[in-house]
Each structure stands twice: as C-alpha cells, then as structure tokens.
Amino acid sequence: MRKKVAILGSTGSIGQQTLEVIRKYSNEFEVVGLSGWENTASLKEQISLFRPKVAVVKNEYTVRKLKKDLDNSSDIKLLWGTEGLVKISTLEEADIIVVAITGIASLIPTFEAVKKGKKIALASKEAMVAAGELLVNEAKLRNAKILPIDSEHSAILQCLKNEQKDCIEKIILTASGGALYDFTETALKNVSIEDALNHPTWKMGKKVTIDSATLMNKGLEVIEAKWFFNIPVNKIEIVIHPQSYIHSMVQFIDGTILAQISEHDMKIPIQYALFYPNRTINNFSRLELTKIGQLTFKKPNFNKFPCIKLAYQALEIGGTMPAVLNGANEIAVNAFLDSQISFSAIPLIIQNTMKEHKPKYNPNISDILDADYWARERALGFCILE
Ligand code: MG
C-alpha cells in the first residue's frame, strides 16, 4: 500500500523538492492533495504529473483561472482559501501531511491536522513558533506526530534517535550566519534587498532568506527546538558554522557530541521525514569531506544581530509572546522587501511591538491568532513611522 501524501505549499521551494523525492519513490508514495496558492502555472504541471484528488488555490478567481488551464478530462476538486487548506490537511485518506506554506497561514491547517491525529512533516516553522506549546500538547492528546523538515531539527532528531532524553546536556544549533554576517555594524545600516537575499549556502524562499540575514531564522529555530524536543531554553545554544555542512549537534552528559553532516540539500531532511523512522537509499550528491578541507565555528554576535536576543526573550516570557515576535517579524520583513523600511529597522519594529504586548498564558488557538493579528497591526504602525 502506497502512503498517501498531501502537500500544502507544493509550488514553493520545499514543496517542489518534496515532489521530487516522491517522484523518485512513486511506488512508496502517492499524492492526494496539493496547494499552490497563486502559482497556477506550476500547480497545473504538478496536477498533470501527480494526479491528486484535490488542489487548493488562493481564491475563487484563481480557481477559475486554473480550471481553464486544466484539460476537461481532469475530475480534480478545486478549493480555495484557508478552508481549502484545512480540507487537504485533514483529508481522511491522507497518511502524511507536508506543511510548507510561508508564514502564519500554516498554523490553522497544521492545528487541524494535529486534531485529526495525522503524521505531519512540518517545514513552516512559523506554526511551531507561534503555537508550539499548543501544537505539542494537542499532538500528545490526539496521538499525532509532528516531524521537522527544517534541516537543523531533522539533524537533532537523527542525533537523538537512540538516546535518553535525560542524557542531553545541550542542543547546538548551527547557523550559516546568513548573507551579512561579516558586515560591520555601520554597513548593516545600509544593506540593500539584493545584499540580504544573497545567501551564501542555501537557496530558499525570500522570507526565510531575509530571516537568515537578520539571524531571526536561528531565533525562530531555537523556539522550534524547544517545542520539538521539549528542551529548556538555557540548553539550546547557537554556533556560527559558515560552511553549513553540520546541520546541528547534540552534546550529551558524558561530553560526547553527535552531529549530522550532509550536503546542502533539503531533499535529505524531506526524505528523512517522509520515511521516518526508517532510512532509505538515494542517489543525491554525496558530501566529499576531503574537498571541503575544513569546517569552522564561531560564537554568534548577539549585539550585531539583536533578532536572536528577541527570540530568546520571547521564549522566556512565553504565552502569546512568541506569536507576537513572529507576527511582527513577518510584517517587518515584508516592509523591508517592499523597500519601506531599512534592514536595521527590522529588529526595532519587533522589539517595540513586543514591549507593548501583554502576554496571555496557556493560550488557546484563538488567543494565538488574536495576538498574531494584534502584533501585525501594531508592527505596521511602527513601519509607517520609520
Ligand atoms: Mg533551518
């Protein structure tokens, strides 16, 4: 029996690579649902190749556009909006839900999939950042499994596979440093969009590439790690590792460090999540250590990149604060990409928004969505002032 997979965000970078993996293992997996939002051209190709039963786009208009493009023989069901996303994330027959939509839009479909007890391969870190506590508790209750596709968390999952939780001394998240790590503080004030999008080792979507340049990406991953592995925040450390071949490490109570090392290829963590807990052969390119020669490490500079500090703070405060951090960050990143604010204004806007928030503890899903909405409005206000 082939495993049935639904992919939310199939036309994005992770979505496309997930389909590449599935294509290589077409006798193990079949695609039952896809969502492509506005990219109907690419979604159309995916539909003709993978023949899902349901596809989701942004709105009624995009449904009509896609319908025109599809040949008449296609009996696919076309849906739209968040409701459509929830339909495919809770499809009765789906065994695995891959969530790879950018931003907070991933939260409701992920939460509903958890409530159905699904196996979820989560690439959208924003859902875990905003609502980690809620998602993890609900998953326990409903017997759902949330597996990371983020390369760092996949690395940690692999390092922890045969280990006892109480033997963990700390988690060491590696960070490439992003496009701007060696810029001086003065140079950081005049960073262009092109500079910030010029990531040294990974090709990714725009949002996560800017998050890498501010190092917020690593901050969000600290929060993600806390919830994925139930580790106190003071046991999660960040190390700058510019070559990004070590995807993360775990240090144990006997002084041993285990690391997961591989090529910069998201198909590796995607495949690991799809086949989890098994390992499967592939022909992706192999890392040649002798060609790399050396791996280097340095301490992160929290003062130059204050977004990391803000993420640790949000996690320590807890409740709805991480949702506010995430919401304000999404607004600030978009404003930077729209040339409305400078690069160095991104952390200021997040910090100002966090300062005004009164966190709610043990939040339910509507508390989190309210906090997210509030943070966006507030952050937008600060962007206009910039
Ligand atoms: Mg990552």
Automatic annotation (TrEMBL):
GO molecular function term, any single one: isomerase activity
Pfam families in the record: DXP_redisom_C, DXP_reductoisom, DXPR_C
Pathway membership: Isoprenoid biosynthesis; isopentenyl diphosphate biosynthesis via DXP pathway; isopentenyl diphosphate from 1-deoxy-D-xylulose 5-phosphate: step 1/6
UniProt source species: Candidatus Sediminicultor quintus
Span of domain 1-deoxy-D-xylulose 5-phosphate reductoisomerase C-terminal: 146-229
Record-listed NADPH binding positions: T11, G12, S13, I14, N39, E126, G205
Catalytic activity: 2-C-methyl-D-erythritol 4-phosphate + NADP(+) = 1-deoxy-D-xylulose 5-phosphate + NADPH + H(+)
Keywords in alphabetical order: Isomerase, Isoprene biosynthesis, Magnesium, Manganese, Metal-binding, NADP, Oxidoreductase
Segments forming a coiled coil: none
Similarity annotation: Belongs to the DXR family.
E.C. designation(s): 1.1.1.267
Protein name per UniProt: 1-deoxy-D-xylulose 5-phosphate reductoisomerase
Domain DXP reductoisomerase C-terminal: 262-377
General function of this protein: Catalyzes the NADPH-dependent rearrangement and reduction of 1-deoxy-D-xylulose-5-phosphate (DXP) to 2-C-methyl-D-erythritol 4-phosphate (MEP).
Lineage, broadest ranks: Bacteria, Pseudomonadati, Atribacterota, Candidatus Phoenicimicrobiia, Candidatus Pheonicimicrobiales
Listed Gene3D superfamilies: 1.10.1740.10, NAD(P)-binding Rossmann-like Domain
Cofactor(s) in the UniProt record: Mg(2+); Mn(2+)
Ranges for domain 1-deoxy-D-xylulose 5-phosphate reductoisomerase N-terminal: 5-132
UniProt binding sites for 1-deoxy-D-xylulose 5-phosphate: K125, S151, E152, S176, H199, S212, N217, K218, E221
Residues given in the record as Mn(2+) binding sites: D150, E152, E221
NCBIfam families (alphabetical): Dxr, PRK12464.1
Uppermost EC category: oxidoreductase
GO BP annotations, alphabetical order: isopentenyl diphosphate biosynthetic process, methylerythritol 4-phosphate pathway involved in terpenoid biosynthetic process
The encoding gene: dxr
